[in-house]
Amino acid sequence: MAHVLPATEPERLTVLEAIPTPVWVIGLLLLIMPALANNFVLFQIFGWSFILGMIALSLMVLAGYGGMVSLIQMSVGALAGYVVAILGTSGIPQISLGWPWWLHIPLAILIATLFGTLVGALAVRTEGIYTIMITLAIAAAFFYFTRQNYSIFNGYTGFNNVLPPALFGIDWRQAVPFYYLTLGCATLSYGAVVWMARTPFGLALQGVRDNPRRMSALGFSVNAHRILAYSFASVIAAVGGILIVWQNAQVVPGTAGIPQVIDILVIAVVGGLRRPIGPFIGALIYTILSVFSSDILHALGMSGERFKLVVGLGFLAVVFFSPDGVLGLWERYRSRAERSSRDLRPGGEAAL
Amino acid sequence: MGNLQNFSTRHPIWALVILVVVVGLAWLIIAPWPPGLEQAMGRKRIFLNAILSGVTLGALYFLVASGFTLVFGLMRNVNLAHGSLYLLGGYIGFGVAESTGYWLLAFPVVFILVGALGLLLQHQVFRRMEGEELRQTMVTIGISIVLADLMLWYWGGQSYQVLSPDWLTGPATLPLISSIQSNGDPVYLTYPRVRIAILFAAIVIGLAMWLVLNRSRLGMLIRAGVDDREILAASGVRIQYVFLAVFAFGAGMAGMAGIVGGTFQSLSPGEDTRFLLASLVVVIVGGMGSIPGAALGAVIVGLAEQIGLVYAPTYSVVFTFLIMAAVLAFRPQGLLGARH
Known about the structure:
heterodimer; A: mainly alpha; two-stranded antiparallel ribbon; 15 helices; globular; disordered C terminus; B: mainly alpha; two-stranded antiparallel sheet; 14 helices; 2 strands; 73% helix
């Protein structure tokens, strides 16, 4: 069959050349952002978007590649934050152990990942909407437990004064260092997800999503793939959770309250669950809305407290009109634009 | 009865365990406690109160969860706005009871109003995305966010208490011995009358639902729809009407449960998610789509919550969660659920 192939093989692109131009532009923009934006925008809007985006990304991995909508991701992140506060230093010296950062950060990620894997092992016994219900119930149990337990989680008040370690002599809670820290973590997780989706494991996971019965007939363990996906997603959520705690300098039960848990789903769905970039877009929209909603609502003559109403209505509109989120809208718009330009071009589709 | 015999012949050990637990509980409830037991577990009055609170809380959970499980069983639609319907019903019921002064009047009004909202939701929203379970679930999440904020807007953040009518206020004396006085006279347990009434109402409603489901034409249609709705639709039944009726009924039940909840607890923002989660756990434990399962799950969850609250306050939530995890691990379809 070799002679059927065209004589000239398509040029093999190097990794750098394979990245399309818009990505370069956005990457550069993000890198020089501190020169363009003020500290508030860097810390509150971009920092928060990257973090929420990472946690929503961990949901996207499960929902988009694994077909499992898990609402536990925010709790996994909050648990990592709690472990950082408990093992590291905080404003509650009676509980915090004050271990060094190279010990408590990996341990936090490890413990949160174990927790996420355990929940996953329980959740994969169910399918579809059951998964949503069970993970939501576990997330609620986590919230109420942290609120009632005073010996480990310090109950209602949680932990305050949880600060990032002053690594390399930098105060990481300053706007610019924090911006680069979150940008770096977000880029790494994004890259990890893109890479994971192309590994044999990622491909098998997508196979399991599309047809579990066929995959298991081919000798793949359906449950093992799903549980491993939970582990992978938990690592990303755990890193995001630690960053949230550093940004707020505190971790309380409300960090993973029911509204926050639902918010992650809203962010991921609004951005789009099919591509890893979706959650970040959703997170950016969400943070911009939440920061500026009171101004916008005031301008429209309404009370500034109706932020949730705006988010809820926006979410409803997206779910109603574009199940693939904002990304889906964009893709639909682009394919329509392409079609119309092709039709107009002489010698285009019409001539074929 | 046939089911019961089947169960005892197929699982003799489990039947024995259940029998022992039931008899033990009955003895703990009826007999006066010997002093040794009182030393180990505290006063009997506290135990009895925990049991009764658990059962009445279970009755409330049943009222909320029965509509949820029915809607799920028939339409495969997880209505995550169910808690919002509960809270909305409670608020409306509070308004009606306050302005007219008739507590009982609130029930039909709320049933009709919230049921109509349910009709609207089913007809305008869920029918448009039939079979797309995930999308329906997302839409219900969106609706619950919007409803929660609208209710916060209108009723504010304070908590409301629906006042029970005079004939239901005050304690009732139950024929249960709480302790023996030194002169040998038994002391009988007293318990709020309104809670006893709610318990009876829940039992009556549960029986009525069972009768309708098992002894009427509509119930036959619903059961057939739960088993296989495509065949039911193909055999000429206007299944959309059945869906509408069931959804409206489930919504109305949630609304009425809101009045009940507002009478013996209180209504405030956040109660919607609390009762949504309670319904979730109840139907996961009891089995999706099964009314007896919802009753069993509600009583188990209510008891676990209240007994936990008395004997291990820090971990009462964890008990509920552990029960759910155990059911999921050993019987994923729920205690009385059918495997699909």
